[in-house]
Write a structure and sequence with these properties.
Elements (H helix, E strand, L loop, with lengths): L10 E8 L8 E7 L4 H12 L7 E5 L2 E4 L8 E2 L5 H4 L5 E6 L5 E11 L9 E6 L9 H12 L7 H7 L15 H11 L4
Parallel strand pairs: 4-5
Antiparallel strand pairs: 1-2, 1-7, 2-8, 3-4, 3-6, 6-7
Length: about 190
């Protein structure tokens, strides 16, 4: 790990990609402080992607696994480490959310930057693809869901609309990224500093 200026002066640019989801792919590019702890990073990722934080999660850096302290699971305490301590430009690590649906995200550290004045980090820089609905059955379940919603004649079409609490399949757009909502949610993650 190369040593930069003190961590509080470094902004880390990351690209978070939801693995296995295509048509469209789902990814977010974020800038956040290097002194962000992993428990805070979890909240930032939930906000940026659009997950609802209903389930467990884990960060994996090679063999090292970090999460909420749990004697049953062999996770190190995510509150004890920061993004900057574990990464450098080019570092790739894994964030898994929901051990049932198993949403695997690959996170790439793209760049280390100087903070811009008057910007409150974390910020969303760029984004593609809607977040899948919670509990939709992982990568395969989501692919299924998109197919069923796109086909009004499918016998589960109505059932899925009701499950999503939608009146019409057009309200579900896998390409839509609610950037304003994400910006608002990200701002809230930074409040507790």
């Amino acid at each position: 790990m190369s040593h930069h200026s003190p961590a509080h002066n470094v902004i880390v640019q990351i690209k978070v990609k939801l693995l296995g989801v295509t048509k469209p792919p789902v990814w977010r590019r974020l800038q956040l402080r290097a002194d962000t702890r992993l428990d805070q990073l979890h909240e930032i990722l939930q906000a940026a992607l659009g997950w609802e934080n209903y389930h467990m999660h884990v960060f994996e850096f090679g063999e090292q696994r970090f999460g909420v302290r749990d004697p049953e699971l062999d996770f190190s305490d995510e509150r004890q480490v920061t993004l900057g301590e574990l990464t450098d430009i080019g570092t790739r690590f894994r964030y898994t959310y929901d051990f049932g649906d198993d949403w695997h995200h690959e996170i790439l550290v793209e760049d280390l930057l100087d903070p811009e004045p008057n910007i409150h980090y974390p910020i969303l820089v760029d984004a593609k693809g809607a977040c899948p609905p919670e509990d939709c059955g992982g990568v395969w379940g989501y692919a299924d869901l998109k197919e069923i919603l796109a086909d009004p004649s499918h016998d589960e079409h109505q059932e899925r609309l009701e499950w999503l609490e939608l009146d019409d399949a057009n309200e579900f757009d896998p390409n839509a990224v609610p950037t304003d909502d994400i910006g608002y949610e990200l701002a809230l993650t930074g409040v507790s500093r």
